[in-house]
Amino acid sequence: MWWHQHNLCFRHPIEEDYSSGDQEEKVATIAEADESAESESVIDFHKRREILSRRPSYRKILNELSSDVPGVPKIEEEKSEEAGTSPNISAMAVPTSIYQTSTGQYIAIAQGEAIQISNPGSDGVQGLQALTMTNSGAPPPGATIIQYATQSADGTQQFFVPGSQVVVQDEETELAPSHMAATTGDMPTYQIRAPTTALPQGVVMAASPGSLHSPQQLAEEATRKRELRLMKNREAAKECRRRKKEYVKCLESRVAVLEVQNKKLIEELETLKDICSPKTD
DNA sequence: AGGGGACAGCGTCAGGTGAT
DNA sequence: ATCACCTGACGCTGTCCCCT
Protein backbone atom coordinates (compact mmCIF):
# COMPACT_ATOMS: atom_id res chain seq x y z
CA MET A 1 0.00 0.00 0.00
CA TRP A 2 2.35 2.65 1.25
CA TRP A 3 5.30 1.10 -0.44
CA HIS A 4 3.35 0.49 -3.59
CA GLN A 5 2.52 4.15 -3.93
CA HIS A 6 6.04 5.04 -3.04
CA ASN A 7 7.50 2.86 -5.73
CA LEU A 8 5.03 3.52 -8.47
CA CYS A 9 4.55 7.23 -8.16
CA PHE A 10 8.17 8.21 -8.54
CA ARG A 11 11.57 6.66 -8.52
CA HIS A 12 13.96 8.23 -6.17
CA PRO A 13 17.61 8.04 -7.30
CA ILE A 14 18.44 6.34 -4.06
CA GLU A 15 15.96 3.61 -4.67
CA GLU A 16 17.49 3.16 -8.07
CA ASP A 17 20.73 2.23 -6.40
CA TYR A 18 19.10 -0.79 -4.85
CA SER A 19 17.62 -2.10 -8.04
CA SER A 20 19.37 -5.07 -9.46
CA GLY A 21 19.91 -5.13 -13.19
CA ASP A 22 16.90 -7.14 -14.24
CA GLN A 23 14.87 -5.33 -11.69
CA GLU A 24 15.68 -2.02 -13.32
CA GLU A 25 14.54 -3.39 -16.61
CA LYS A 26 11.26 -4.40 -15.11
CA VAL A 27 10.78 -1.05 -13.46
CA ALA A 28 11.52 0.64 -16.75
CA THR A 29 8.92 -1.57 -18.33
CA ILE A 30 6.44 -0.43 -15.76
CA ALA A 31 7.36 3.18 -16.30
CA GLU A 32 6.68 2.80 -20.00
CA ALA A 33 3.46 1.06 -19.27
CA ASP A 34 2.48 3.92 -17.04
CA GLU A 35 3.23 6.41 -19.77
CA SER A 36 1.06 4.55 -22.18
CA ALA A 37 -1.52 3.96 -19.55
CA GLU A 38 -4.31 5.24 -21.76
CA SER A 39 -3.57 2.79 -24.51
CA GLU A 40 -2.59 -0.21 -22.44
CA SER A 41 -4.86 -0.19 -19.47
CA VAL A 42 -3.63 -2.88 -17.09
CA ILE A 43 -0.15 -3.92 -15.98
CA ASP A 44 0.29 -7.58 -15.34
CA PHE A 45 -0.46 -8.08 -11.68
CA HIS A 46 2.16 -10.70 -11.01
CA LYS A 47 4.89 -8.71 -12.69
CA ARG A 48 3.99 -5.69 -10.68
CA ARG A 49 3.87 -7.64 -7.47
CA GLU A 50 7.21 -9.16 -8.22
CA ILE A 51 8.76 -5.76 -8.67
CA LEU A 52 7.10 -4.24 -5.69
CA SER A 53 8.08 -7.00 -3.36
CA ARG A 54 11.76 -6.52 -4.08
CA ARG A 55 12.27 -3.52 -1.90
CA PRO A 56 15.24 -2.58 0.17
CA SER A 57 14.97 -2.49 3.92
CA TYR A 58 14.24 0.75 5.68
CA ARG A 59 17.67 0.61 7.24
CA LYS A 60 19.33 0.56 3.84
CA ILE A 61 17.17 3.33 2.48
CA LEU A 62 17.58 5.51 5.52
CA ASN A 63 21.31 4.99 5.62
CA GLU A 64 21.49 6.09 2.03
CA LEU A 65 19.39 9.11 2.81
CA SER A 66 21.56 9.81 5.79
CA SER A 67 24.73 9.80 3.76
CA ASP A 68 22.96 11.99 1.26
CA VAL A 69 21.70 14.50 3.77
CA PRO A 70 24.16 15.54 6.46
CA GLY A 71 22.73 15.74 9.92
CA VAL A 72 20.34 12.87 9.49
CA PRO A 73 21.28 10.10 11.87
CA LYS A 74 22.04 6.70 10.47
CA ILE A 75 20.21 3.63 11.67
CA GLU A 76 22.76 1.56 13.47
CA GLU A 77 23.73 -1.89 12.42
CA GLU A 78 22.23 -5.01 13.87
CA LYS A 79 24.31 -5.32 17.02
CA SER A 80 24.01 -1.80 18.31
CA GLU A 81 20.45 -1.72 17.12
CA GLU A 82 19.61 -4.57 19.39
CA ALA A 83 21.24 -2.79 22.25
CA GLY A 84 19.37 0.29 21.19
CA THR A 85 16.12 -1.24 22.32
CA SER A 86 17.28 -0.41 25.80
CA PRO A 87 18.66 3.07 26.14
CA ASN A 88 20.04 2.22 29.52
CA ILE A 89 22.04 -0.68 28.30
CA SER A 90 23.36 0.84 25.12
CA ALA A 91 26.00 2.77 26.99
CA MET A 92 27.35 -0.37 28.60
CA ALA A 93 29.52 -3.09 27.17
CA VAL A 94 27.71 -4.86 24.37
CA PRO A 95 25.92 -7.83 25.90
CA THR A 96 25.27 -11.05 24.10
CA SER A 97 21.60 -11.13 25.00
CA ILE A 98 19.02 -8.64 26.17
CA TYR A 99 15.68 -9.68 27.53
CA GLN A 100 12.75 -7.71 28.77
CA THR A 101 10.49 -8.65 31.63
CA SER A 102 6.74 -8.31 31.54
CA THR A 103 7.06 -5.09 33.54
CA GLY A 104 9.40 -3.50 31.05
CA GLN A 105 12.63 -4.08 32.87
CA TYR A 106 15.61 -5.20 30.85
CA ILE A 107 18.01 -7.99 31.62
CA ALA A 108 21.26 -8.12 29.75
CA ILE A 109 23.36 -11.24 29.88
CA ALA A 110 26.92 -10.47 28.93
CA GLN A 111 29.37 -12.76 27.26
CA GLY A 112 31.05 -13.37 30.57
CA GLU A 113 28.83 -14.02 33.51
CA ALA A 114 27.32 -10.68 34.38
CA ILE A 115 23.62 -10.11 34.30
CA GLN A 116 22.48 -6.52 34.11
CA ILE A 117 18.99 -5.47 35.04
CA SER A 118 17.67 -2.07 34.13
CA ASN A 119 14.49 -0.11 34.25
CA PRO A 120 13.51 1.70 31.05
CA GLY A 121 12.31 4.64 33.10
CA SER A 122 15.56 5.34 34.85
CA ASP A 123 18.24 7.20 33.00
CA GLY A 124 21.67 6.04 32.00
CA VAL A 125 23.51 3.55 34.08
CA GLN A 126 21.46 4.36 37.09
CA GLY A 127 18.94 1.67 36.39
CA LEU A 128 21.51 -1.00 35.86
CA GLN A 129 22.36 -3.67 38.31
CA ALA A 130 24.91 -6.39 37.87
CA LEU A 131 24.50 -9.94 38.98
CA THR A 132 27.21 -12.52 38.73
CA MET A 133 26.43 -16.11 38.04
CA THR A 134 28.81 -18.37 39.89
CA ASN A 135 27.65 -21.50 38.20
CA SER A 136 27.54 -20.24 34.67
CA GLY A 137 29.74 -22.75 33.04
CA ALA A 138 29.15 -24.10 29.58
CA PRO A 139 25.44 -24.54 29.18
CA PRO A 140 24.14 -28.01 28.55
CA PRO A 141 23.35 -28.67 24.92
CA GLY A 142 19.86 -27.83 23.85
CA ALA A 143 19.18 -25.60 26.80
CA THR A 144 20.72 -22.36 25.72
CA ILE A 145 17.67 -20.70 24.30
CA ILE A 146 15.95 -18.12 26.42
CA GLN A 147 12.20 -17.94 26.50
CA TYR A 148 10.14 -14.94 27.40
CA ALA A 149 9.19 -13.99 30.91
CA THR A 150 5.95 -14.54 32.66
CA GLN A 151 4.34 -14.49 36.06
CA SER A 152 4.89 -17.60 38.06
CA ALA A 153 2.36 -19.21 40.35
CA ASP A 154 3.75 -17.51 43.43
CA GLY A 155 3.46 -14.08 41.88
CA THR A 156 7.13 -13.58 41.12
CA GLN A 157 8.56 -12.87 37.72
CA GLN A 158 10.67 -15.52 36.08
CA PHE A 159 12.64 -15.55 32.90
CA PHE A 160 14.93 -18.22 31.69
CA VAL A 161 18.53 -17.57 30.78
CA PRO A 162 21.08 -19.60 28.91
CA GLY A 163 22.23 -22.53 30.96
CA SER A 164 18.82 -23.80 32.05
CA GLN A 165 18.72 -21.26 34.82
CA VAL A 166 15.92 -19.02 35.94
CA VAL A 167 16.08 -15.39 36.95
CA VAL A 168 13.41 -14.87 39.58
CA GLN A 169 12.30 -11.54 40.92
CA ASP A 170 12.02 -11.48 44.71
CA GLU A 171 8.95 -10.02 46.27
CA GLU A 172 10.91 -8.76 49.25
CA THR A 173 14.11 -6.79 48.91
CA GLU A 174 16.05 -8.69 51.48
CA LEU A 175 19.72 -9.38 51.04
CA ALA A 176 20.26 -11.81 48.29
CA PRO A 177 22.16 -15.06 48.69
CA SER A 178 25.85 -15.16 48.06
CA HIS A 179 25.49 -16.29 44.46
CA MET A 180 23.99 -13.02 43.44
CA ALA A 181 24.48 -9.36 44.09
CA ALA A 182 21.95 -7.56 46.23
CA THR A 183 19.97 -4.67 44.89
CA THR A 184 19.32 -1.52 46.79
CA GLY A 185 16.55 0.92 47.42
CA ASP A 186 13.25 0.39 45.70
CA MET A 187 14.76 -1.80 43.07
CA PRO A 188 13.56 -5.38 43.13
CA THR A 189 16.04 -8.17 43.67
CA TYR A 190 16.60 -11.12 41.43
CA GLN A 191 17.84 -14.60 42.02
CA ILE A 192 19.43 -17.09 39.71
CA ARG A 193 17.76 -20.42 40.33
CA ALA A 194 17.47 -23.78 38.78
CA PRO A 195 13.98 -24.27 37.38
CA THR A 196 12.72 -26.49 40.15
CA THR A 197 8.99 -26.51 39.65
CA ALA A 198 6.80 -26.85 36.63
CA LEU A 199 7.27 -24.13 34.09
CA PRO A 200 5.02 -21.11 34.33
CA GLN A 201 2.28 -20.79 31.81
CA GLY A 202 3.56 -19.68 28.47
CA VAL A 203 7.15 -20.62 29.09
CA VAL A 204 8.64 -23.60 27.35
CA MET A 205 12.18 -24.68 27.97
CA ALA A 206 14.42 -25.64 25.13
CA ALA A 207 15.08 -29.32 24.85
CA SER A 208 17.76 -31.22 23.07
CA PRO A 209 16.34 -32.44 19.77
CA GLY A 210 18.07 -35.73 20.27
CA SER A 211 16.08 -36.39 23.40
CA LEU A 212 12.75 -36.26 21.62
CA HIS A 213 11.09 -39.58 21.10
CA SER A 214 7.37 -39.74 21.60
CA PRO A 215 4.86 -37.94 19.38
CA GLN A 216 3.91 -35.85 22.37
CA GLN A 217 7.48 -34.66 22.75
CA LEU A 218 7.65 -33.91 19.06
CA ALA A 219 4.44 -31.94 19.33
CA GLU A 220 5.84 -30.03 22.28
CA GLU A 221 8.99 -29.32 20.32
CA ALA A 222 6.92 -28.04 17.42
CA THR A 223 4.94 -25.85 19.78
CA ARG A 224 8.11 -24.54 21.32
CA LYS A 225 9.56 -23.75 17.93
CA ARG A 226 6.39 -21.99 16.92
CA GLU A 227 6.35 -19.93 20.11
CA LEU A 228 9.95 -18.96 19.54
CA ARG A 229 9.27 -18.05 15.94
CA LEU A 230 6.25 -15.96 16.88
CA MET A 231 8.20 -14.21 19.59
CA LYS A 232 11.03 -13.38 17.21
CA ASN A 233 8.64 -12.21 14.54
CA ARG A 234 6.81 -10.09 17.07
CA GLU A 235 10.02 -8.32 17.94
CA ALA A 236 10.97 -8.03 14.28
CA ALA A 237 7.65 -6.44 13.45
CA LYS A 238 8.08 -3.92 16.23
CA GLU A 239 11.55 -3.09 15.01
CA CYS A 240 10.36 -2.84 11.44
CA ARG A 241 7.63 -0.41 12.40
CA ARG A 242 10.06 1.67 14.34
CA ARG A 243 12.38 1.82 11.34
CA LYS A 244 9.51 2.68 9.06
CA LYS A 245 8.48 5.59 11.25
CA GLU A 246 12.06 6.78 11.33
CA TYR A 247 12.25 6.47 7.56
CA VAL A 248 9.06 8.46 7.07
CA LYS A 249 10.36 11.15 9.42
CA CYS A 250 13.57 11.25 7.44
CA LEU A 251 11.67 11.65 4.20
CA GLU A 252 9.57 14.41 5.69
CA SER A 253 12.61 16.31 6.84
CA ARG A 254 14.14 15.80 3.42
CA VAL A 255 11.04 17.27 1.83
CA ALA A 256 11.29 20.27 4.14
CA VAL A 257 14.93 20.82 3.20
CA LEU A 258 14.22 20.52 -0.50
CA GLU A 259 11.30 22.90 -0.26
CA VAL A 260 13.53 25.51 1.34
CA GLN A 261 16.17 24.96 -1.32
CA ASN A 262 13.57 25.26 -4.02
CA LYS A 263 12.26 28.47 -2.58
CA LYS A 264 15.76 29.93 -2.43
CA LEU A 265 16.46 28.95 -6.02
CA ILE A 266 13.24 30.55 -7.20
CA GLU A 267 14.13 33.74 -5.38
CA GLU A 268 17.59 33.66 -6.88
CA LEU A 269 16.13 33.18 -10.31
CA GLU A 270 13.84 36.15 -9.85
CA THR A 271 16.76 38.28 -8.73
CA LEU A 272 18.82 37.28 -11.75
CA LYS A 273 15.91 37.99 -14.03
CA ASP A 274 15.63 41.46 -12.57
CA ILE A 275 19.30 42.06 -13.10
CA CYS A 276 19.45 40.76 -16.64
CA SER A 277 16.31 42.46 -17.89
CA PRO A 278 16.39 46.16 -16.93
CA LYS A 279 13.04 47.86 -16.69
CA THR A 280 11.85 49.63 -19.82
CA ASP A 281 9.67 52.60 -18.97
C1' DA B 1 -23.88 9.36 27.69
C1' DG B 2 -22.92 6.80 23.82
C1' DG B 3 -22.45 5.74 18.91
C1' DG B 4 -19.20 5.80 15.35
C1' DG B 5 -15.35 7.23 12.37
C1' DA B 6 -10.28 8.04 12.25
C1' DC B 7 -6.06 6.69 13.75
C1' DA B 8 -2.18 4.22 15.96
C1' DG B 9 -0.24 0.14 17.57
C1' DC B 10 0.07 -4.76 17.91
C1' DG B 11 0.29 -9.82 16.61
C1' DT B 12 0.30 -12.91 13.02
C1' DC B 13 0.86 -14.81 8.39
C1' DA B 14 2.90 -15.04 3.91
C1' DG B 15 6.32 -14.35 0.88
C1' DG B 16 10.79 -12.24 -0.63
C1' DT B 17 15.80 -11.68 0.24
C1' DG B 18 20.45 -12.58 1.57
C1' DA B 19 23.79 -15.43 3.90
C1' DT B 20 25.70 -19.91 4.57
C1' DA C 1 18.65 -26.00 -0.06
C1' DT C 2 18.02 -24.12 4.21
C1' DC C 3 17.63 -20.73 7.51
C1' DA C 4 16.99 -16.23 9.67
C1' DC C 5 15.46 -11.90 8.86
C1' DC C 6 12.50 -8.22 6.87
C1' DT C 7 8.24 -6.24 5.62
C1' DG C 8 3.44 -5.80 3.37
C1' DA C 9 -1.11 -7.12 4.43
C1' DC C 10 -4.79 -8.22 7.41
C1' DG C 11 -7.57 -8.27 11.48
C1' DC C 12 -8.11 -6.81 16.15
C1' DT C 13 -8.06 -3.51 20.01
C1' DG C 14 -7.72 0.82 22.40
C1' DT C 15 -7.94 5.83 22.27
C1' DC C 16 -9.46 10.24 20.75
C1' DC C 17 -12.66 13.29 18.85
C1' DC C 18 -16.97 14.70 16.93
C1' DC C 19 -21.83 14.45 16.54
C1' DT C 20 -26.48 13.34 18.14
What kind of sheet is the major sheet? 4 strands, antiparallel
Q: What is the percentage of strand-forming residues?
A: 5-15%
- The topology string of helices and strands comes to HHHHHHHEEEEEEEEH
Mean pLDDT: 50
Number of strands: 8
The low-confidence runs, each spanning 5 or more residues with pLDDT under 50, are: 1-55, 69-210
Tally of alpha and pi helices: 8
**So what's the overall shape?**
elongated
What structural class is derived from the secondary structure elements?
alpha+beta
| C-alpha termini separation | 57 Å
Helix content: 40-55%
Roughly how many Å is the radius of gyration?
27 Å
Strands of the widest sheet, in order across it, are: 1-2-3-4
Main location: nucleus
Domain BZIP: 223-274
InterPro entries: bZIP (IPR004827), bZIP_sf (IPR046347), CREB1-like_pKID (IPR003102), Leuzip_CREB (IPR001630)
Subcellular location: Nucleus
